[in-house]
Design brief:
- By secondary structure, this protein is mostly helical.
- It has helices at about 5-25, 35-40, 40-45, 55-70, 70-80, 85-90, 95-110, 115-120, 125-130, 140-150, 155-165, 165-175, 180-195, 200-205, 210-215, 220-235, 240-245, 255, 265-280, 280-295.
- The protein is elongated and about 85 Å long.
- The protein starts with a helix and ends with a helix.
Length: about 300
């Protein structure tokens, strides 16, 4: 093919690369958001999600995620511009860099409200995100954990969608991975699932989450311990049976040590977990005292 024919195509590609990279950078600064929206940025980014150049696809998704993350109005614009189905389609087709960016957009939309999280569910994203939990790359798993947790946190119905898609056993596997950031967000997502109803807490328990959480109570990482103590509290709060399941995982006296942790949120979440157990029965309260809880 002659140079004269190739030149405009190369120029067009360079222009697309420069455009998406610049927009993604501009979207990191709040003062630029309104101007970007007024310029019709959503409609311009949408076709670039299907660009034949992978780096352009990734930058377009990253820019959309940053925009959607900023406000619920912009997240609604992502939905109304029919961008979610394209992201979901691409989640199963593209490379790990794109999957991370696409999961970031889904998370940024879902976080704002139950209605926006429902739009993410309606796009078929939950099944695609659960498949991402089986990816080899831990950063893709982490991005999927974030998005699923943000969907699940809003309502029991949304959380049930995540459970029905088979996410819970895979989230429990993510808790066992070596990467700290993946452990943290997987534990957080399990907590967001367990908090709603006894049935959802059962789903988390039956997937084997409690023994793995209990084993992490003594972990040196503060942010991980926050999520672990929170998850155990969200399970224990539902009933006597749930509290006993948590106690049977040998969390005492380990969790009492968390009350002296340097991290304020670890102390708070550990105290909440102990309270949720103690409130259930006199026998459980006595168990806590006998473990040294009154000292």
């Amino acid at each position: 093919m002659s140079r004269a024919v190739l030149a405009p195509f190369e120029a067009y590609q360079k222009a697309r690369v420069q455009f998406v990279q610049t927009v993604a950078e501009l979207a990191t600064r709040p003062q630029n958001i309104d101007a970007l929206q007024s310029a019709g940025v959503m409609a311009l980014l949408r076709p670039l999600l299907l660009d034949n150049v992978p780096s352009i696809q990734q930058s377009a998704a990253l820019a959309l995620g940053r925009l959607a993350n900023y406000s619920d109005d912009l997240a609604e614009a992502v939905v109304s511009n029919q961008i979610l189905p394209q992201l979901v389609y691409s989640l199963s087709e593209q490379n790990r860099f794109y999957k991370k960016a696409a999961a970031f957009v889904l998370r940024a939309v879902a976080k704002h409200s139950p209605q926006l999280a429902q739009a993410v569910v309606d796009s078929g994203a939950v099944d695609a995100l659960v498949v991402c939990l089986e990816e080899f790359d831990p950063s893709v798993k982490e991005a999927a954990c974030w998005a699923l947790g943000y969907i699940a946190k809003h309502t029991p119905e949304l959380a049930q969608n995540v459970v029905d898609a088979g996410a819970v056993p895979l989230l429990v596997l993510c808790v066992q991975e070596p990467e700290l950031s993946l452990k943290r967000i997987a534990a957080s997502a399990l907590s967001d699932l367990a908090k709603h109803t006894p049935e959802l807490a059962n789903a988390v328990y039956e997937a084997g989450a409690v023994p793995h959480m209990a084993a992490l109570i003594s972990h040196p990482d503060g942010p991980l311990k926050r999520q672990v103590c929170s998850c155990l509290a969200q399970i224990a709060k539902h009933s006597v049976d749930h509290a006993e399941l948590v106690v049977e995982a040998d969390i005492f006296p380990k969790i009492l040590n968390c009350l002296k942790d340097v991290d304020n949120l670890v102390r708070k979440n550990a105290a909440t977990c102990i309270r949720e157990i103690a409130k259930q029965t006199t026998e459980l309260a006595k168990l806590i005292v006998n473990a040294g809880g009154a000292a």
